[in-house]
Amino acid sequence: MSEKNIPYKIYLNEDELPKAWYNIRSDMKVKPAPLINPGTRQPMTAQELSQVFCDELVEQELDNTTPFIPIPDEIYKYYKMYRPSPLVRAYFLEDALGTPAKIYYKFEGNNTSGSHKLNSAIAQAYYAKKQGLRGITTETGAGQWGTALSMACAYFKLDCKVFMVKVSYEQKPFRREVMRTYGASVTPSPSMETEIGRKILAEYPNTTGSLGCAISEAVEVAVKSEGYRYVLGSVLNQVLLHQSVVGLETKVALDKYGIKPDIIIGCAGGGSNLGGLIAPFMGEKLRGEADYRIIAVEPASCPSFTRGKYVYDFCDTGKVTPLAKMYTLGSNFIPAPNHAGGLRYHGMSPILSQLYHDGYMEAVAVEQTSVFKAAEMFARSEGILPAPESSHAIKVAIDEALKCKETGEEKTIVFGLTGTGYFDLVAYEKYHNGEMTDYIPTDEELAKFFAQIPKQ
Amino acid sequence: MSEKNIPYKIYLNEDELPKAWYNIRSDMKVKPAPLINPGTRQPMTAQELSQVFCDELVEQELDNTTPFIPIPDEIYKYYKMYRPSPLVRAYFLEDALGTPAKIYYKFEGNNTSGSHKLNSAIAQAYYAKKQGLRGITTETGAGQWGTALSMACAYFKLDCKVFMVKVSYEQKPFRREVMRTYGASVTPSPSMETEIGRKILAEYPNTTGSLGCAISEAVEVAVKSEGYRYVLGSVLNQVLLHQSVVGLETKVALDKYGIKPDIIIGCAGGGSNLGGLIAPFMGEKLRGEADYRIIAVEPASCPSFTRGKYVYDFCDTGKVTPLAKMYTLGSNFIPAPNHAGGLRYHGMSPILSQLYHDGYMEAVAVEQTSVFKAAEMFARSEGILPAPESSHAIKVAIDEALKCKETGEEKTIVFGLTGTGYFDLVAYEKYHNGEMTDYIPTDEELAKFFAQIPKQ
Question: Which of A57, A315, A388, B340 has the most crowded CB, counting CB atoms within 10 A?
Answer without folding.
Answer: A57
